[in-house]
Amino acid sequence: MNMPQWQGGDEPAYSFGSELLRWLAPPHDGPEETVAVPEPDGSSPPVSRGIKWCAALLSQARAAREAIERHAPDRIVTLGGDCLVDLAPMAYLSRRYGEKLGVLWLDAHPDVMSAAEFSHAHAHVLALLLGRGDEAFTAEVPRKLDARRVMIAGMQGWNADEDLILKELGIRHIPPAVLADSSRPILDWIETEGITHLAVHFDLDVLDPAHFSPLLFNRPGMPEGAFDGIEQGRMQLDQVVRLLKEIGAAVDMVGLAIAEHLPWDMLRLRNSLAELPIMKS
Amino acid sequence: MNMPQWQGGDEPAYSFGSELLRWLAPPHDGPEETVAVPEPDGSSPPVSRGIKWCAALLSQARAAREAIERHAPDRIVTLGGDCLVDLAPMAYLSRRYGEKLGVLWLDAHPDVMSAAEFSHAHAHVLALLLGRGDEAFTAEVPRKLDARRVMIAGMQGWNADEDLILKELGIRHIPPAVLADSSRPILDWIETEGITHLAVHFDLDVLDPAHFSPLLFNRPGMPEGAFDGIEQGRMQLDQVVRLLKEIGAAVDMVGLAIAEHLPWDMLRLRNSLAELPIMKS
């Protein structure tokens, strides 16, 4: 499923990132759906119940659910878009696989805030899946995830609000250094909890922005210190690939969402090419 | 014309760079040709007359000429691939427009060496167009360019071999600092030489690798100092766009080749996605 959703991070470039991700992904022979997302028109975000673009995000989450239900698949690959694209796929997989499902959340951030803490809903999605947050969104998750079968991986730091919520929800997490050379802690969790089916949320920002450029933190033209205090990823792409391959050998990987792809240089190049005189003729 | 040629720089990633450039380029309504280029198979490069992959490069240059001649176009956009992709398009435009044609060579390097100095033919192409270098390649240029109507732009430094050849051929050049805020020197050259039709060679490595990532110099995993002594670009993408737009208002832009696109992060991401368990099912 392609979901070029950009409103959850209020950043139009997520839409382009999703399209390019689809071009990069290998061919497949399953059905494919693309959730319709309005193009950004430069208008300022409408806010409802403390959430920017709230109505559009809810409508897109419902459209994603309907797209999934049309096929009732065994497995879902979701190409985002902002992190909130994983609401409908995770909700579907939770209903389908119940207590057999584990959720691995590869992310530099826990995504557990709510409108009280932050107006960008891409930072709410994991809490919503556990039943905490805006009621219209949690209503899209008929079977909430069980915190024991959720693991955040690759997260080094979090803020005070997040700390309280993580404790309240009882979500565990593993820092990036532990996973750099070993998949063992994840494999142990899978075994201990009896997980046979796994859905992976791969927020690309779990990667170190010094070694992987298409990330929010590499947005060009930002003033010095613009991202101060926001946790940045520490993992390497090949570490994540190794982790997912080793896990995939132990469990049935039934879900994968890739989110927060922001290929700035490709976007600049595309826009530049479109401006050149000979390209227009 | 798409030309995923990689042998001129002996770097398989040029092929991927060309495919992605095509995806990024705006839609057009002219005919489109893709020159067939064998996939790299990891074998070591055969060398003839001091040129790596010489036979393949010559065969591809001829295939490009034939592809162009099938349509006899007024204008050609070429998406490379290494810099040598511009041999056939420039040779065709030189024959078609004769003394009305100017050639603007946007590049951090002069591309004027020959097999005596360097075995990678992507560094030979401008000299070949002026009639200097391997005879099988210069034979592909029935009407040589006139050095007065060639201008290298954005070049800050060059080596001793290149210095001698630039003087021998009489090619002029303008450093990047002069063009950062003004297109005037190029516009003056166009006017003085009576140029009415312009072909542009845009080697992306004219751009500063600190501000634009998909360049050779940002190849991941290179040892410290691997590119010492090799001139790197200093221009900004928006400066090049401004330059080409201002020039395009003064002259008929009949050729544009974009070369040396090496989007490393996109290549790594594509290869990583293809390795993930759920993507294979």
Account of the 3D structure:
With 281 residues, chain A is α/β, with parallel strands linked by helices. The first copy, chain A, has one domain: Ureohydrolase domain (Arginase, Chain A). Helix content of chain A is 36%, strand content 14%. Chain A has 11 helices and 9 strands. In chain A, the strands form 2 sheets. Chain A has a 7-stranded parallel sheet with strand order 1-4-9-8-5-6-7, sandwiched between helices. A two-stranded antiparallel sheet of chain A has the order 2-3. In chain A, helix 6 (160-169) links the parallel strand 6 (150-153) and strand 7 (172-174). In chain A, helix 2 crosses helix 3 (87-97). Chain A is globular. At the A-B interface, helix 1, helix 9, strand 9, helix 10 and helix 11 of A face helix 1, helix 9, strand 9, helix 10 and helix 11 of B.
Concise structural overview:
With 281 residues, the first copy, chain A, is of the alpha/beta class. The first copy, chain A, contains 11 helices and 9 strands. The first copy, chain A, has a single domain (2-280), classed as Arginase, Chain A.
